[in-house]
Specification:
The chain has 134 residues and is an alpha/beta fold. The chain is built from two helices and six strands.
């Protein structure tokens, strides 16, 4: 998924229901150990790097990368993505997954691309799928 795709998906779900602007942002992956189950994690920050990549940062992981936690909503994320400008539309979007610390103190993670968007009206979340597809 690229920033362009994320913008289109957010615009579409907000067009369907204006209330979605206030929904929180999360990531979701299918649970390999419990078929049919999903793991959903709220997003606490976002980050763009010099390699022209955009990251969603799971809640609780912000301090590892010296990022301030943000209360992310669908409307706020959409505005932030658009503010990056046309030059960022083709940046790939990743989630930082499986965070760890090396023996020398560096923080490492596995970057996983996002591949689809979903809505959970009951939980008031817009979530982005990452990881293995079912």
């Amino acid at each position: 998924m690229r920033i362009r795709d994320m913008i289109e998906d957010l615009e579409e779900v907000i067009k369907e229901s204006e209330a979605v602007k206030g929904y929180g942002i999360a990531i979701a992956s299918y649970d390999n150990e419990a078929p049919g189950e999903m793991n959903v994690i709220s997003i606490g920050a976002s980050h763009t790097d010099e390699a022209q990549q955009f990251y969603l940062v799971p809640s609780g992981a912000e301090p590892f990368y010296n990022l301030e936690p943000q209360h992310m909503t669908a409307g706020g994320l959409l505005a932030s993505l658009k503010a990056l400008g046309d030059g960022a539309l083709d940046y790939t979007v990743f989630v930082w997954d499986q965070l760890g610390q090396t023996q020398d103190g560096r923080i490492v993670s596995i970057n996983k691309p996002l591949w689809a968007t979903g809505i959970h009206d009951g939980a008031q979340l817009v979530y982005f799928y990452y990881g293995d597809k079912p």
